[in-house]
User: Fold this.
Amino acid sequence: MLNLGILISGRGSNMESILKSIKTKKIPINPAIVISNKIDAKGLAIAKKMGVNVEVIESKNFKGTRSEFDEKIMEILVKYGVTPRNGLVCLAGFMRIISPEFVKKYKNKIINIHPALLPAFPGLNSQKQALDYGAKYSGCTVHFVDAGMDTGAIIIQSIVEIKNKDTEKSLSKKILKEEHRIYPQAVSLFARKKIKVLGRKTIIS
Ligand code: GRF
Assistant:
């Protein structure tokens, strides 16, 4: 079975939805490790409670380069069996840019969830970006991570309507609900080897 590593920085609600789905929907993947770059990430307690190993590498006082930090992350992943051959890495609110070395080593093995319909509104505060732009629809995207910012091949997207009365908070809530639905779906597709990557396109079987 594949081993799953989840990288978080905060709340960890996507992590939680993935871990719950693995149990209830019997997704054939072993939740091997949750790694946080922040000691006070709320998700750490959730993971522990769900019986999943956790490790913290604090980025705040880390003296080395981004590549050196990611080297540490990769060491932990490998320690728990999340290897490029036999693993999947999910970024779930992990607020760091991944080094090119990490991306290269784990090519098409790292996926991320973004709270907008990529390629619209990449980067931070995507919900606010969508509102400020006057978009009528937004949503979320699960995609492979490549060397760019939110540019990797798209796996699943889900759409939500933006109403006149929507605020950043209400839109974020609507989108988050969809995130919690499609991220576990993407993990399941990956675990069942249903995703084929052809350049920047994915074919789901
Ligand atoms: C989510 O909105 C996700 O799309 C974005 O960061 C947020 C993380 O939330 N990348 P959580 O930690 O999973 O609750």
About this structure: The longest strand covers residues 29-36.
